[in-house]
Design brief:
Blueprint (H helix, E strand, L loop, with lengths): L6 H4 L15 E3 L5 E3 H34 L17 H16 L7 E6 L5 H16 L14 E4 H11 L8 H9 L4 E4 L9 H14 L5 E5 L3 H7 L1 H8 L3 E6 L4 H5 L6
Parallel strand pairs: 3-6, 3-7, 4-5, 5-6
Antiparallel strand pairs: 1-2
Helix pairs in contact: 3-4, 6-7, 7-9, 8-9
Length: 267
């Protein structure tokens, strides 16, 4: 008597193979996806590379923000955050020009003199420009000996105060060291010139020396509540002569933003 044939054991099914990698059998992942061992390996490596790229980007942004803070640049300043309270069309045109200035800035770019009353946004606009410049130019190279500083902000009164403080404390940076540091940024914002900074002719000379050191090396922005002719006097003849050789004057002739949005109560 002939025994019956068990078709389920005698007929073997060949495993399905990967379309991308021939002869590689596929299996099912817990997610339900069907892959071969090579595809699964490539998938894992791609996910790891993507996660590392995200960590690297986060670390880069953190380092860039730290550099901005150390150079007194507001990391939250954006042209998109500018509040239009009047002369909107003119202000939009100015922002477009400053964006172009930041995107094309190099050692041949002109200096900027921004004048206007208190509260018109001179400093904030400079920080917006500096932030855009940081996004464009900042690089983190741990092996580099000469670190690129896209922009730096300093109030003129703080600079004079630092010099005078160093006379009594040798642990602080000397005037020469401070000058060396202010020579390095690709863009220097010398803020509020004429605001409790200059008390002697020597102080004028000190401000002018910054402009002399940066002459033909990198552009400088000066902001002030004073008229251009007064700024010229405050930075001295030599400094102004070099600063004004290639200069764009920008006048913020609108009202104070703070006064427009101020909320007052009468008791």
């Amino acid at each position: 008597m002939v025994a019956p044939v068990n078709t389920q054991t005698s007929l073997r099914q060949e495993p399905k193979c990967c379309d991308k990698h021939p002869n590689q059998p596929i299996f099912q992942l817990p997610s339900g996806e069907m892959v071969c061992h090579i595809c699964n390996y490539e998938k894992i490596k791609a996910e790891q590379a993507d996660q590392q790229a995200k960590r690297d980007k986060a670390e880069f942004v953190q380092r860039r923000t730290a550099s901005m803070v150390s150079n007194r640049i507001d990391p939250n300043a954006r042209f998109a955050n500018w509040q239009f309270v009047e002369q909107e069309q003119r202000q939009r045109q100015l922002i477009d020009k400053l964006i172009h200035y930041a995107d094309t800035l190099d050692e041949t770019s002109p200096n900027l003199l921004i004048v206007g009353a208190t509260g018109t946004g001179k400093t904030f606009m400079c920080h917006c420009l500096a932030h855009r410049l940081y996004v464009k130019q900042y690089r983190y190279e741990p092996w580099a000996t000469d670190v690129v500083i896209p922009a730096q902000h300093i109030k003129s009164s703080d600079y004079i105060a630092k010099i005078k403080a160093s006379w009594d404390d040798r642990k602080l940076d000397s005037e020469i060291v401070l000058l060396d540091k202010l020579e390095k940024p690709n863009l220097l914002i010398l803020d509020d010139v004429g605001d409790n900074d200059v008390s002697t002719e020597k102080d004028c000379t000190r401000l002018g020396q910054i402009l002399e050191r940066r002459y033909h090396k990198a552009p400088t922005i000066i902001t002030s509540n004073h008229k251009p002719q007064d700024v010229a006097r405050l930075v001295g003849d030599r400094g102004w002569d070099r600063f004004s050789e290639k200069l764009v004057l920008i006048t913020f002739d609108w009202g104070s933003y703070r006064q427009v949005v101020a909320k007052r109560e009468v008791w």
